[in-house]
Amino acid sequence: MKTNLANIYGSPGTRVRFTGLFKIFFPLILIIFLIGLLVGNLTGQLMHPKMYAIVILVLVIIGWLMYDVAAKSFGAFLKGARGEEIVARELSMLSKDWHVFHGIPTNGVMGTLGGTDFDHIIVGPAGIIIVETKNWTGKISVEGGIIHINGVSPSRSPIEQVRKEALQLCNIIKEFAEPGTKISIAIAFASNTFEDELSRIDDVTICNARKLREFIMSLDKNNNVSEQKQQLLIEHLAKLCE
User: How far, in Å, CA of 21 to CA of 32, rounded?
Assistant: First the structure.
């Protein structure tokens, strides 16, 4: 059914959840595999039976510790996925002349589940926009051109992260865009705890999720991507979401 809302491709948070589940279950699968090898070699008597028991016990303990660590970090993956869903809902309210893509792999390979992805890519009247979602808990501020959470700068700069992603996206779409095509980049906080609501650090827009559409609609609608190439770009990105 046609609507007056944005065209949506892909599913927000899917890759994040997959990565979290993989980190939880991979250690268990590896340990079970190693235990299976040991049990299978029991008849070969490569070691004393008591040694087999000790090694298997050690493997079980290591597997449990690895699982415990992974299970604790899984909550962070789920939180990130929920953040992407919050931002996706905001983007879905754009008008029908916008196309919103979720979870496209940064290596540009269709159907890839491993590795990293672009949280959101938007294509429309103002050209191409890339949005990195953060679902941080705490007061977010900008001090001296650096994003802080509760007064502390994160170990990994989200600004450098989204700039790197913009370069990766340029490489993926180079055949569909004119030389020098501008990609607008933004960081959206799903928690809506950014004090300034909407601000900029050089080429990067910083905003709360609820201000994201306001930022997009304020962009210059004159871009140097032809309608034909923009349609080819949309079709290409749509395939990467499959």
Answer: 17
